[in-house]
């Protein structure tokens, strides 16, 4: 049996598994084959060399190991309130109480009195006595048999534990598997990469990630497996990019007469250095004869829209039509109003198509797009409808692209059957470099990292609930100066777990009571879209001075007169979300303020988020800290993207390894684009052994 076929063997055939356990492993941990199991890596290890006496315990310790003898156990309480309590006595005679609230009957049967155990868990202190809830246990006699220096601890679930499949059972399965599997493991990196990066061979890496022989070997195994995982992800992205650049022709846009006229006669401000650099990068793509596929990142208010308009002008100068698609009507309206002023001066026909465009207006739009009379159109998903046809669609710009599925975007590309349009994807969600390289490695990335001149930095402060009266007085002073205020709440209605957080309805009522002299609007996600738009429009026209809202206002609403953003229960929001909300103010010439309101009880992460917000306005720095706090899954909604199907690497912590793996992938493809050279045989064989639909090429099968 060859290596790749061997790793496709169903898990039930492994010694100690069988059909019943196999079904549970499939359902609970998605382990179907030998390949899945060998890549079910431990999430931490027990250091078998470190033991504590009960007298040395301290509540601040995370997890500790104690050796001792069980002296007595009893089941306390009735029914659902039952618990098992046991006493462990160490060699000094000090006692540690062990408690189980789940699996009481099974635990009581298996726990032996007057027997020596190693217990592992989190110590907590109550009335001067230490206890441990749900510790992991191991009989001392068993412990002597293991040769590993660190003992692996595997992820498992309550359901698996209920069926006696705990971390120790998985470790036993792993021992059986490694005996038969290691001889079948084939090297999947080239000798040159192994030599250059001093990588451990793959067999030893698998052996030492599960049962490390020493700290040094464990670190080498971890580096090897992380490097390989990130290398194959980057290799896949670069190959996609190379194939696309080689195969996909793009229209050549090299005429720029209207653009020159716009620069000379109609632009009332100077572009920043960053905007000029980005325009140059885009122009390079548009004249290269290949399809442009570029991601434009820029913080809220950095001037992406004007870059988008310049790109649309270049398309229009070369006889092509362009589309700017936004995720919401409010955003589409805003882009339309902003660009309309420029388009009118230049005599360009700019249209707008959204869900609420009237039928008779649609008809005119459809005809003008088909005839080519309309060169530019701004809109929402309505642009994707089949009736919307173009004479020559040459450029698609998608704003806040993570709100659109791949399928929706490709519908736009298909609107030009002759030659695929150029694509510019814009986002105001700053994506950390490591994430951008992994999510958008097949796109070229441009960054606007400079704010337009004259923009004042938003002053951000953190205030506790006890300062509310002073904050309200500040709001009054700002409204008297003619400004407007946002107040954002995390929830719509109170729910039991959240009862200590301000909820929107409650907040709306108390704001109306606190400011009887002013008009207050309210917007939340459960409102119908026309009601939402009506309330937003009242605020835009300054008919209401205070807007009470949930996070629906976070992307793209532009009210230059709003200069104060108050975020209630700010500890409940993620860092990137706080930064996005703050970006709703600071759009006019006046000094703007963001006030983060919280109670006194704050977790360590909440404090870090609030301190970061007060300290910096830099979206990229904020995104990096957010990635470290939250991990990549939450950012960008990447769980669905499939790209971040990572087994061992961690984008928040492994940026240096990612950089090296990326450089290595680039070098390999540069030397040998088709991977035909003999020294790349391992890489070629590994890719061929994987099914075409596997997203993560580092997978075994």
From TrEMBL:
Catalytic activity, as annotated: Couples ATP hydrolysis with the unwinding of duplex DNA by translocating in the 3'-5' direction; ATP + H2O = ADP + phosphate + H(+)
EC assignment: 5.6.2.4
Keyword field contains Membrane: no
Cross-referenced InterPro entries: ATP-dep_DNA_helicase_RecG, DEAD/DEAH_box_helicase_dom, Helicase_ATP-bd, Helicase_C-like, NA-bd_OB-fold, P-loop_NTPase, RecG/Mfd, RecG_dom3_C
One GO molecular-function entry: ATP hydrolysis activity
Span of domain Helicase C-terminal: 473-633
GO biological-process terms attached to the record: DNA recombination; DNA repair
Keywords: ATP-binding, DNA damage, DNA recombination, DNA repair, DNA-binding, Helicase, Hydrolase, Isomerase, Nucleotide-binding
This protein's record includes keyword Magnesium: no
Function: Plays a critical role in recombination and DNA repair. Helps process Holliday junction intermediates to mature products by catalyzing branch migration. Has replication fork regression activity, unwinds stalled or blocked replication forks to make a HJ that can be resolved. Has a DNA unwinding activity characteristic of a DNA helicase with 3'-5' polarity.
Family: Belongs to the helicase family. RecG subfamily.
UniProt protein name: ATP-dependent DNA helicase RecG
Organism expressing this protein natively: Pontibacter flavimaris
């Amino acid at each position: 049996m060859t290596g790749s076929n061997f790793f496709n063997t169903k898990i039930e055939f492994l010694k100690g598994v069988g059909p019943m356990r196999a079904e549970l492993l499939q359902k609970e941990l998605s382990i179907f084959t030998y390949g899945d199991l060998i890549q079910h890596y431990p999430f931490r290890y027990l250091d078998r060399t470190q033991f504590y006496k009960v007298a040395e315990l301290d509540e601040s310790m995370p997890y500790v190991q104690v050796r001792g003898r069980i002296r007595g156990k009893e089941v306390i309480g009735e029914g659902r309130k039952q618990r098992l309590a046991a006493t462990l006595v160490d060699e000094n005679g000090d006692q540690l109480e062990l408690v189980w609230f789940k699996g009481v009957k099974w635990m009581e049967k298996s726990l032996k009195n007057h027997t020596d155990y190693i217990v592992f868990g989190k110590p907590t202190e109550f009335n001067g006595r230490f206890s441990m809830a749900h510790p992991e246990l191991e009989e001392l006699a068993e412990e002597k048999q293991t040769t590993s220096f660190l003992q692996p601890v595997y992820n498992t679930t309550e359901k698996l534990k209920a069926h006696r499949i705990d971390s120790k059972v998985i470790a036993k399965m792993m021992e059986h598997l490694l005996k038969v599997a290691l001889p079948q493991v084939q090297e999947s990196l080239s000798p040159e990469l192994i030599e250059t990066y001093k990588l451990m061979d793959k067999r030893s890496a698998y052996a030492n990630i599960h049962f490390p022989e020493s700290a040094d070997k464990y670190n080498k195994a971890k580096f090897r497996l992380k490097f390989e995982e990130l290398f194959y992800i980057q290799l896949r992205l670069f190959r996609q990019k190379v194939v696309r650049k080689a195969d996909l022709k793009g229209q050549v846009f090299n005429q720029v007469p209207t653009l020159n006229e716009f620069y000379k006669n109609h632009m009332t401000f100077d572009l920043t250095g960053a905007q000029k650099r980005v325009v140059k990068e885009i122009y390079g793509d548009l004249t290269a004869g290949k399809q442009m596929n570029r991601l434009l990142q820029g913080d809220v208010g950095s001037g992406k829209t004007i870059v988008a308009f310049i790109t649309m002008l270049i398309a229009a100068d070369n006889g092509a039509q362009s589309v700017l698609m936004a995720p919401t009507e409010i955003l589409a309206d805003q882009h339309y109003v902003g660009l309309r002023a420029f388009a009118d001066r230049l005599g360009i026909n700019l249209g707008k198509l959204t869900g609420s465009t009237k039928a008779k207006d649609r008809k005119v739009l459809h005809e003008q797009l088909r005839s080519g009379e309309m060169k530019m159109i701004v809109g929402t998903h309505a642009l994707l409808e089949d009736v919307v046809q173009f004479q020559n669609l040459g450029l698609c710009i998608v704003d806040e692209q993570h709100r659109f599925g791949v399928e929706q975007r490709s519908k736009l590309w298909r609107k030009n059957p002759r030659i695929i349009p150029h694509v510019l994807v814009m986002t105001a969600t700053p994506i950390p470099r490591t994430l951008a390289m992994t999510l958008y490695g097949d796109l070229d990335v441009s960054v606007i990292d400079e704010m337009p001149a004259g923009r004042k930095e938003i002053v951000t402060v953190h205030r506790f609930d006890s300062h509310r009266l002073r904050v309200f007085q500040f709001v009054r002073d700002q409204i008297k100066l003619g400004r407007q205020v946002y107040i954002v709440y995390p929830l719509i209605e109170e729910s039991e777990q959240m009862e200590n957080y301000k909820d929107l309805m409650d907040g709306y009522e108390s704001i109306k009571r606190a400011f009887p002299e002013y008009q207050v609007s309210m917007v939340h996600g459960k409102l119908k879209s026309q009601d939402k738009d009506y309330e937003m429009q009242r605020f835009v026209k300054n008919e209401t001075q205070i807007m009470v809202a949930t996070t629906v206002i976070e992307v793209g609403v532009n009210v230059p007169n709003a200069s104060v953003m108050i975020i209630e229960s700010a500890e409940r929001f993620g860092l990137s979300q706080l930064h996005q909300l703050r970006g709703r103010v600071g759009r006019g010439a006046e000094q703007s303020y963001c006030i983060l309101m919280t109670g006194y009880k704050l977790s360590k992460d909440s404090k870090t988020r609030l301190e970061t917000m007060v300290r910096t306005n830099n979206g990229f720095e904020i995104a990096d800290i957010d990635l470290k706090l939250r991990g990549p899954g939450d950012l960008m909604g990447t769980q669905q993207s499939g790209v971040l199907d990572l087994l061992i690497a961690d984008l928040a912590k492994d940026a240096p390894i990612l950089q090296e793996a990326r450089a290595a992938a680039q070098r390999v493809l540069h030397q040998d684009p088709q991977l035909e050279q003999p020294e790349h045989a391992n890489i070629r064989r590994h890719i061929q052994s994987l099914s075409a639909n596997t997203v993560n090429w580092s997978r075994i099968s």
